[in-house]
Amino acid sequence: MLQVENVHLSFKKKGSFWRAGNKPILKGVTFHMRQGECLGLIGASGSGKSTLGRVITGTLRPQRGLARLFGEDIHHMDKAGLFGRGRARPGLGGVVSIVFQDYNTSVNPRFAVRDILAEPLRGTKLAGDASYLKALLAQVRLPADYLGRKSFELSGGELQRVCIARALAAKPALVLLDEAVSSLDVSVQFQVLELLKNLKEESGLSYLFISHDLAAVTHLCDRILFFNDGRVVEQVDSLADLVHVKDCYSRQLIAAVLA
Amino acid sequence: MSALLTVRGLDVALKTKKGARTLVSGVDFTLEPGGAMGILGESGSGKSLTCRAVMGLLGEGFTVSGRAEFQDRELLSLPPKAMRALCGREIAMIMQHPLTSFDPLCVIGDQMAETFRFHLETSREAAWEIARDALAAMRIADPGHILTLYPHQLSGGMLQRVMIGLTLTLRPALVIADEPTTALDSVTQFEIMKELVRIRESGRTSLIFISHDLGAMRMLVDTALVMHQGRQVEYGPAQAVFNRPQSDHARYLIETRNALTSRFLAYAGRRAGLDRERGCCRAAG
Q: What ipTM does the predicted assembly reach?
């Protein structure tokens, strides 16, 4: 479903003549992902995980290499179809949706839950269909009367559930979870991960789970990519292989969590 | 030996248009010199609010009542000037978000020197020298260069170390660490935890460690206080609280933590032994 091939990306560094230049962020990233799979991408802060996520959602264009979704170059896909309104892939709905880390800043504070959920459906009949929006809330185990509530009336865990429901609204094939549980406390984290697990089983979704928390990644995913300094440094195809990891950074990460 | 900090019947209320709303009620604990206490609870349970109330860091909208005795001084009735002299020198706090705890417009060196000049009454040059030594003590490479950088030029882990270095140089009797590792990745988190263990083992400084992460807390504390919806639901020796929790909420927190890590431990549990045998991994150290 998703193929990322030799993706290179650098950002321009500001500064004086001697300091200015290019700062490489992604240095030849290659991996593949099957439909219905949950792939974990784990790495330190600043290693380029979220930048890779932005390449996959088509918001950043790599200087070299390409990212393909269903065989099509993401950067040349119709953005409306990619994110929501189902024009690019009729019948399937949107292709990619995202759940961000900071739930507070990823919703408009003036919006009620009804408007938040309707955002990716704008321009379609479903946007005004209260029963569809209620069904979305039921999917994330929230009561129907939450439709009229504002974001500040919800707890962190509830608001992140609304963000997950928004991500599911356009029936995507791939959901990108960018540190989606990192800012929640452990018990809420567990509830949200269980919810994601159940949703995957119910709807056959694919997840690309970007995180720095190895325990959360192993809870949800069966295949893990260890990411460091803009590269995939280790690929674990089965969790049983975690004990055979060779790369030093990946071993440090495992040892740190175990300690 | 008399206790370093004794808190009795601490209540925190917020004045609202509809009247006072109680946010924290009936918190009691005692911290011995050289001891380490953990405050465990979910977001919004009142962990940080309790510590901020003790340090007098809450705004005018809050009402704090009860008793908080630190080295025979009643903190809750201390005048602001005396409290300011005490904070940093005797009681220090390590914040959760290092990036928002520093002034983005000043270089690290100036910010550290400002604190040292206030508490140690030294010259600017001497304060910069102390700051350089503080960073070197935190095993930060090239401390002279780091002092000339702005906060946004440092990583989260590095900034957190700067904050710990700043805190420890003044040799406070009590350090309150408010979720110091929550925003960091696992490897950096482990490095910071090692620094906190070092503080604890020095025996000079007592520690209050606030977290919702039971794993981090197990590594550090000898007493644990569990909070839920502004109330203290359990308090006692850490091993007893973690292994035989009496309250439903403490049991729930411990069970969810175990459930979250069970899959990882089942697959990677043998890893720790392997790394020790091979002696390759720094973090396992």
A: 0.73
